[in-house]
Amino acid sequence: MSITKHFHDIENAISSLVDFVRSSEVSFAEAYTLPSISKTEEHDHISEIEVKSHKMCEAVDSLLNGLSDFWIYNANLTDSSKSVRRYPGLIVINGDSELHAELNDLIRKVNHHKCALKNLRVSKYTKRSVRYEAMHSALPGAITEQVDRMVPLSDIELYSVSYSWVRKTSTVKVDGEKLIESLRGQLNKPQSCMQIDEWNEMLVRESNLISMHMDGDRLRQRRNVKVHPIYNALTVKEYDDQERNKRKRQLKASLPLIIVQSDLPRYTALKDYREDEQRRGYIKSSLSCDPLIPRLNLYHKK
């Protein structure tokens, strides 16, 4: 099967899911609009995110439209194409176990076709660059990450739904020699408002510092991954109180959480993100506390 055929299967499965929701009795719906990120800010550190809430009919429309928001031209021309658009929110459909099973079957079909498309790309094209070209030749303007992301699924009745903000880091091993070669290629090509001499001196200083720490293959680059919301779903009690953690489920909130149950779950709305208000846990790291070269997010492994 081709990429185009798999994509059409995804569209058809989403259409069936949307028809199901629109023909059902929605007892609760709330959606959140997150601000877009401009091209000039796509690499900036995010310290605040303000969310806008929508309820019932407006929320249902927003969340269902988000299921098929795959295209770069759906965004404004100034918006970043590297930052995906997210559609967090909850839709509760009033119904019994039979309707619950029907909904989950529709969601599984959507996710099955998404997996099939991703598996085709990975198995047929070994190089990442070739997979990228194949995807965008077949579907010009499609944002791969938005096509691939799964619709969250809960196969058990939920007692409560709340949200958290998550910021993760990405750490990769760095080849010191290649990094120095890259810095040398930037000589006499100053960025921002730096003078050529000042720029070149900085590059030489950074290259020398990298050379001093190339022993033992210990150089790492660590970058913050974009902040994103998650669902905290607590299932209806099936365990002893001592086993409460077994009832907890965390699901990505890139797409709406759609459930069928007769009783509404307890619900805590998504709040604005404020970095200085987030709880900070201790995470043991093998990297040095301070970056070796802050500009490059370069660290030295202990």
Task: Give a quick set of tags describing it.
302 residues; alpha+beta; Replication Terminator Protein (Tus), Chain A, domain 1; four-stranded mixed sheet; 7 helices; 13 strands; 34% helix; 21% strand
Strand content: 15-25%
Helix content: 25-40%
CATH third-tier fold name of the largest domain: Replication Terminator Protein (Tus), Chain A, domain 1
Give the beta-strand count: 13
Structural class: alpha+beta
Please indicate the count of domains. Answer: 2
Order of helices and strands: HEEEHEHHHEEHHEEEEEEE
Main-sheet strand order equals 3-1-4-10
Rg, nearest Å: 23 Å
Count of helical regions: 7
What topology emerges from the helices and strands here?
Blueprint: H1 3-22, E1 26-33, E2 48-49, E3 52-55, H2 56-67, E4 89-93, H3 97-124, H4 128-138, H5 144-148, E5 158-166, E6 169-173, H6 176-185, H7 196-212, E7 219-224, E8 228-235, E9 248-252, E10 257-260, E11 266-267, E12 273-274, E13 298-300
Parallel strand pairs: 4-10, 5-11
Antiparallel strand pairs: 1-3, 1-4, 2-12, 5-8, 6-7, 7-13, 8-9
Helix pairs in contact: 1-3, 6-7
A few lines on this structure:
By secondary structure, this protein is an alpha+beta fold. It has 7 helices and 13 strands.
